Amino acid sequence: MFPPEGEVWYGIPEFNLLERNITVPGFSPLFPDAHCTSNGDVCQVIIGESGKFPLKINAAASMTALTLSPLFDLRQTYFMVAGIAGVSPKVATLGSVTFARYAVQVALQYEFDAREIPDNFTTGYVPLGATSPTQYPASIYGTEVFELNRPLRDLAVSLARTATLNDSSAAVSYRANYASSAAYTPGSQAPAVVACDVATSDTYFSGTLLSEAFENTTRLFTNGSGRYCTTAQEDNATLEALLRGAVYNLTDFARVIVLRTASDFDRPYAGEPGTVNLFYANQGGFEPAVRNIYLAGVKVVQGILAQWETTFAKGVPPDNYVGDILGSLGGAPDFGPGSEFNDNPVIPPPSSSRMMMAKRGVGRRRARPMMMVGG
Predict the structure, then answer these.
(1) Among candidates 362, 115, 63, 91, which has minimal Cα distance to 241?
(2) Is the pLDDT score of 360 beyond 60?
(3) Which pLDDT score, from 0 to 100, does residue 3 have?
């Protein structure tokens, strides 16, 4: 979260996140505290915005500090990564609320200037280790794709759909321009809660050609099952830190939710220059997107708290693979080249596990049900 995304949670009637402010060593110097309710059931972490420091570096550093902190027992905690994003008009519209199954690091590729690509290339992006845009990457770094708990995602969607979403007259007017293209019909409609996936990139990309290229990358990297809809920067870094915590039993990766609300379209409508869409158009989506983080997100938080004993304390069993492209948590990824560890989880050295458990005072610190995280 950056300040507007974080501040939308303050002064709300459901709970007070500013009752306890816990300074965590290793957090961003701009946002050094975790904000919590008095009983610690709900906490918020703001990892910072890209205008101050590179956002993925911020996300990885702050989330690693959180997972390793002796101040928190996070083994039963549900994490909701929440923020605004760009959106594809093929899938959703301004103000929409999206929940992801996949987070895909789409720009982790070779890049050629589009003016220099061969005639048989559709984009200047080529997966690492490959020689054409349509080949699966042969060089795997490990953060290309994360898959989250689908049943948990679906529960979050159903809870969020009980919210009445915010909109603006400017957004209503701007999204109407997308009705002229049949492919963009979802972009011309009112905000809704949608299950679709997030693409992450260090570069704030915009325009039809790049958006279509990364839409194809999302399908390619997920073996055809991913549905590109939102564009963000830090989610894969956040998820990598949470996954590494799960390897050491410090977090539960099956308890992670990624919520993104749509503040702007990732491409122009037919006939509109791409620069106008990005730089000059009054899309009207920012304020509804920020507001809808809270309006939809609080329904998820309340649902988890209300159903803690009956549903969420024991965990929501996934019916799909959950983890990274390497198979670090065990199981066989349904995308990529297969597990690097023969479908077994990575097992940390016993001495490391004992040290971590002793450091965290097992049995003395109650797990926090809900942690909200964002850039």
Answers:
(1) 63
(2) no
(3) 80
With 0-12 CB in 10 A as exposed, 13-18 as middle and 19+ as buried, what is 340? middle
φ, ψ dihedrals at 24, nearest 5°: -115, 115
| pLDDT at res. 364 | 35
Beta strands 256-265 and 145-147 are unpaired
110-147 pLDDT tens trace? 999 999 999 999 999 999 999 999 999 999 999 999 99
Question: Within 10 Å of residue 125's Cβ, how many Cβ atoms?
Answer: 21
* Residues 87-114 pLDDT 10s: 999 999 999 999 999 999 999 999 999 9
CA–CA separation, 32 vs 42, rounded Å?
17
Residue 120: predicted pLDDT: 95
Residue 214: its H or E element: helix 208-221
Give the span between the Cα atoms of 47 and 26, in whole angstroms.
11
Q: Of 9-13, 47-51, 240-244, 264-268, give the lowest mean pLDDT range.
A: 47-51
State how far the Cα of 77 lies from the Cα of 63, in Å rounded to an integer.
Answer: 14
What does the alpha-carbon distance between residue 303 and residue 299 come to, in Å, rounded to a whole number?
Answer: 6
Q: Are 348 and 329 in contact (CB under 8 A)?
A: no
Nearest to 256 by CA among 338, 309, 318: 318
Tokens of 132: 């054409």
State the Cα–Cα distance between residues 236 and 133, nearest whole angstrom.
Answer: 21
Give the type of residue at 12: I
Give DSSP secondary structure letters for 338-351: --TTTTPBP---HH
Contact (Cβ atoms closer than 8 angstroms) between residue 92 and residue 262: yes
Residue 129 gets the label, from left (phi > 0), alpha (psi -120 to 50) or beta, of: left
Q: What are phi and psi of 211, to 5 degrees?
A: -65, -40
d(CA 43, CA 215) in angstroms, rounded, equals: 34
* Res. 326 pLDDT band, cuts 50 70 90: very high
Residue 47: the pLDDT is 86
